[in-house]
Design a protein that fits this description.
single chain; globular; 265 residues; MetI-like fold
């Protein structure tokens, strides 16, 4: 019964809207009395592919998202471990300050950072866009890895230390495999947030760094709903494809993943 309810909700909220967008991208919106009813067309996809910066923006967006993800994993794992296993004065205050970027308006953050980035030559550069994308993603990563380390506990880490394992062995054989649920969450969330940043990219990138969001949002003013549907499909598929690819990389890179697959079988 629960599975039926779950699949029904998933189909209604996720699967049906996706297939509706696919239908809309080929058939558009049929107006009453129109002679084009039921005739599929790839016009919207051709128009999208002929957009000058569309394909280039996909490559730029993916490159920035991967760099942002790598920094999130590095900072999130390090900070999450410290907040989970260390006690120091002002710990709760620092944790609260880490969440402030989620409550401060994005425009305020972007304008404030732009002044600093101009001084250091990071404005109008992809590196500045990468750094500004850390603002809305790092708080989530730290929180997720902190929860992950609290779930693991310190016993496994202490046992490996007693058995003579160094920090690299401990990280690779114990911490990363057990943190896999947190890594998956951070992976998908970071990619989605980075790809969808329009205001931060526009202000810090200054128009020189053109991501998919920069190309996508101006299209929201168009009355051609078939083009919007096609663009939305591309925008939705990129994080899903990246997630599948990176998930496959995790299975090859992290130990013991093949053993889990055999147990499930």
């Amino acid at each position: 019964m629960r599975k039926t309810i779950f699949y029904s909700i998933a189909f209604t909220l996720f699967i049906f809207p996706f297939f509706f967008l696919v239908y809309k991208s080929f058939f558009g919106v049929w107006a009453w009395g129109s002679s084009n009813q039921g005739k599929p067309s790839v016009r919207a996809w051709k128009l999208l592919l002929n957009e000058g910066e569309f394909l280039d923006s996909i490559g730029v967006s993916i490159g920035i998202a991967i760099v942002v993800l790598a920094l999130n994993l590095l900072i999130g794992i390090t900070a999450g471990k410290v907040f989970s296993f260390s006690s120091f004065r002002g710990k709760s205050v620092i944790e609260a300050l880490m969440l402030l970027p989620l409550f401060i308006p994005v425009l305020v953050i972007a304008i404030g950072l732009q002044i600093m980035f101009i001084r250091y030559g990071l404005s109008d550069h992809w590196l500045g866009v990468v750094l500004v994308h850390l603002v809305p993603t790092i708080p989530y990563s730290i929180k997720m890895f902190k929860t992950g380390y609290e779930r693991i506990g310190s016993k496994f880490i202490e046992q490996s230390t007693i058995l003579g394992g160094n920090s690299i062995q401990r990280m690779y054989h114990i911490e990363l495999p057990l943190l896999l649920p947190s890594i998956r969450s951070v992976l998908f969330l970071t990619i989605v947030i980075s790809l969808s940043q329009y205001v931060l990219t526009g202000i810090i990138g200054g128009g020189n760094v053109v991501t998919l969001a920069m190309v996508y949002y101006p299209f929201t003013d168009t009355a051609d709903e078939a083009v919007m549907a096609a663009f939305s499909i591309v925008f939705a598929m990129i994080p899903i494809i990246l997630y599948i690819i990176l998930e496959g990389c995790l299975k090859f890179m992290l130990p013991y993943q093949h053993l889990r697959g055999r147990k499930k079988q």
